[in-house]
Amino acid sequence: MSQNYAAEFTRLGYAVADDVLPLPSVLALRDVVAAIRQGSEVRRRRDVYGVRNLLEISAGVRDLASTPEIRKFVTPLLGVEAFAARAIFFDKVEGANWGLGWHQDSVISVKERHETPGFDAWSQKSGVWQVQPPASDLAKMVAVRVHLDECPEDNGPLLVIPGSHRHGWLDDEIDEWKKRGPIIPCTVGCGGVVVMCPLTLHASPPANKPRHRRVIHFEFAAHELSGDLDWNNRIGAP
């Protein structure tokens, strides 16, 4: 991490760091994910390629969220009060070599549904309520993506447009932002992390050479929600 990490993240909306977790830790995390039992949280094709609600179903992932290796990317941005509010897993392999178009992350997980001004598009996935909050809530969050495999340019890396996180919802402006660029591929080694503001415009192309691209994706927050709403998880909160 650079000494200017927080300032650069605030300006760009993302950061990349290699060699965060040693190989034994990565191998252990691969086993943690592989041990998750089939359930409504798991989406399968030929292999596991997506698991939601990881904080609820995996003690190993909950433990990872509180480690110094992960917290050091969160505390400089959100402070010591920060907690993990949600975690998901996804993979790309032959037969599940998916891609995502340009978007901003737009939902959070909450304990209960309470109609609240500015919170829309309610849904329930695997028993957990999801809702789209105001952009100002997402602007105060940080996503940390832990890579359990090497992700060079031919393995469908995350693409980001720096600075796009500072402009709220961009639904009607995505094409203009794509033209304006630059578009940066977040290539990262096994055991590295990509840190991102949820509002940063990002995409993920299919891999040119499909192979594992296992990622544990955490979302951290440190603020309270409006009205009677509460985060579904507060892992690592003091």
Widest β-sheet, arrangement of strands:
1-12-9-14-4-3-2
Query: Helix and strand succession?
Result: HEHEEHHHHEEEEEHEEHEEEE
Low confidence ranges: none
- Through-space gap between termini: 24 Å
- CATH class assignment: Mainly Beta
Shape annotation? globular
Main beta sheet:
7 strands, antiparallel
Helices, by number, come to 8
* Proportion of residues in helical segments: 10-25%
Beta-strand fraction estimate? 25-35%
Average pLDDT, all residues: 91
For this structure, the CATH topology is Jelly Rolls
Give me the Rg, rounded.
17 Å
The overall number of domains is 1
Structural class: alpha+beta
What's the CATH architecture?
A: Sandwich
Give the tally of β-strands: 14
| CATH evolutionary superfamily | q2cbj1_9rhob like domain
List keywords for this structure.
238 residues; alpha+beta; Jelly Rolls; seven-stranded antiparallel beta sheet; four-stranded antiparallel beta sheet; 14 strands; globular
What does it look like?
By secondary structure, the protein is of the alpha+beta class. The protein has one domain (5-221): q2cbj1_9rhob like domain (Jelly Rolls), CATH 2.60.120.620. Helix content is 21%, strand content 26%. It has eight helices and 14 strands. A seven-stranded antiparallel beta sheet has the order 1-12-9-14-4-3-2. The longest helix is centred in the first third of the chain and has 12 residues, at 23-34. The relative contact order is 0.26.
